[in-house]
């Protein structure tokens, strides 16, 4: 994945602004079972899914599990400067950004967040450019407008889609969602209530993700992982695919 540059001689200036956060290991350690990882470049793994699918929960759990296995893991900090700008806009119903503004801001954030990466075995990203592009498709932008934007980003080595139905995701969120998660004011007007708008919109987002993955994935492809299982079962399934991608050759790019 060329758009993510590994920084060999330490982090560029930026201190707490650094959008990527190194795991606790700085040198390769032994994997369980005696093997040692000597990755020349990181395996870039993206976890995607609709709102409430469990991406953030799983990113933390997967990062911990991989670190325990001796892999140096870098994750993406959730608090990022361009993300803060985007959030300030979507929190304001009157100034809610249209699809074009949203996709450009979202993509700028992902570009900035991944422009430099410290040495690692695995770079684990909670959302990536797919998220912004799936939103854009769900909001009515055409594939011929969105796909060229996605192609500004090299595909991650491995894409994991945590698949949960919008109704299950909403239930996990306690039945509450934000205006942005429901697609904004127009979708809300059409659906009549925030929960109904959430289900309508997130179904369209899910379709958008699958369409994007079908046309833009890296060497290990994309894997749809059933997210409607226990936290532990989903973590097991995700780690299984990542570990095979990192160490034991190519996993089959099929549903897990
Ligand atoms: N497998 C699961 N089973 C039950 N609840 C889950 C599961 N995964 C996540 N959750 C819960 O669902 C909610 C949304 O999870 P989160 O990780 O924030 O989703 P996302 O980052 O995809 O929006 C949280 O309350 C979380 O604890
Ligand atoms: Mg999240």
UniProtKB/TrEMBL annotation:
<dbReference type="GO" id="GO:0006235">
    <property type="term" value="P:dTTP biosynthetic process"/>
</dbReference>
<keyword id="KW-0547">Nucleotide-binding</keyword>
<dbReference type="GO" id="GO:0006227">
    <property type="term" value="P:dUDP biosynthetic process"/>
</dbReference>
<feature type="binding site">
    <location>
        <begin position="49"/>
        <end position="56"/>
    </location>
    <ligand>
        <name>ATP</name>
    </ligand>
</feature>
<protein>
    <recommendedName>
        <fullName>Thymidylate kinase</fullName>
        <ecNumber>2.7.4.9</ecNumber>
    </recommendedName>
</protein>
<dbReference type="InterPro" id="IPR018094">
    <property type="entry name" value="Thymidylate_kinase"/>
</dbReference>
<dbReference type="InterPro" id="IPR039430">
    <property type="entry name" value="Thymidylate_kin-like_dom"/>
</dbReference>
<dbReference type="GO" id="GO:0005737">
    <property type="term" value="C:cytoplasm"/>
</dbReference>
<dbReference type="Pfam" id="PF02223">
    <property type="entry name" value="Thymidylate_kin"/>
</dbReference>
<keyword id="KW-0545">Nucleotide biosynthesis</keyword>
<dbReference type="GO" id="GO:0006233">
    <property type="term" value="P:dTDP biosynthetic process"/>
</dbReference>
<keyword id="KW-0067">ATP-binding</keyword>
<feature type="region of interest" description="Disordered">
    <location>
        <begin position="1"/>
        <end position="37"/>
    </location>
</feature>
<keyword id="KW-0418">Kinase</keyword>
<dbReference type="InterPro" id="IPR027417">
    <property type="entry name" value="P-loop_NTPase"/>
</dbReference>
<dbReference type="GO" id="GO:0005524">
    <property type="term" value="F:ATP binding"/>
</dbReference>
<comment type="similarity">
    <text>Belongs to the thymidylate kinase family.</text>
</comment>
<dbReference type="GO" id="GO:0004798">
    <property type="term" value="F:dTMP kinase activity"/>
</dbReference>
<feature type="domain" description="Thymidylate kinase-like">
    <location>
        <begin position="47"/>
        <end position="174"/>
    </location>
</feature>
<comment type="function">
    <text>Phosphorylation of dTMP to form dTDP in both de novo and salvage pathways of dTTP synthesis.</text>
</comment>
<keyword id="KW-0808">Transferase</keyword>
């Amino acid at each position: 994945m060329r758009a993510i540059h590994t920084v060999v001689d330490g982090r560029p200036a930026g201190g707490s602004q650094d959008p990527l956060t190194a795991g606790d290991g700085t040198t390769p350690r032994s994997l369980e079972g005696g093997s040692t990882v000597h990755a020349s470049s990181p395996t870039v793994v993206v976890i995607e899914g609709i709102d409430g699918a469990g991406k953030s929960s799983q990113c933390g759990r997967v990062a911990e599990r991989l670190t325990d296995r001796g892999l140096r893991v870098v994750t993406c900090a959730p608090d990022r400067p361009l993300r803060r700008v985007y959030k300030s806009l979507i929190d304001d119903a009157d100034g809610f950004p249209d699809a074009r503004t949203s996709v450009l801001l979202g993509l700028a954030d992902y570009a900035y967040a991944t422009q430099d990466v410290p040495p690692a075995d695995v770079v684990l990203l909670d959302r990536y450019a797919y998220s912004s592009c799936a939103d854009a498709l769900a909001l009515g932008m055409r594939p011929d407008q969105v796909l060229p934007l996605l192609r500004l980003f090299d595909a991650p080595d491995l894409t994991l889609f945590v698949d949960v139905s919008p109704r299950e995701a909403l239930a996990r969120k306690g039945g509450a969602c934000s205006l942005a998660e429901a697609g904004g004011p127009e979708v809300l007007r059409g659906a009549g209530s925030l929960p109904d708008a959430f289900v309508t919109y997130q179904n369209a987002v899910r379709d958008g993700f699958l369409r994007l993955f079908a046309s833009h994935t890296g060497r290990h492809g994309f894997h749809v992982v059933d997210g409607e299982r226990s936290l532990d079962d989903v973590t097991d399934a995700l780690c299984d695919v990542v570990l095979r991608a990192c160490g034991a050759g190519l996993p089959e790019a099929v549903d897990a």
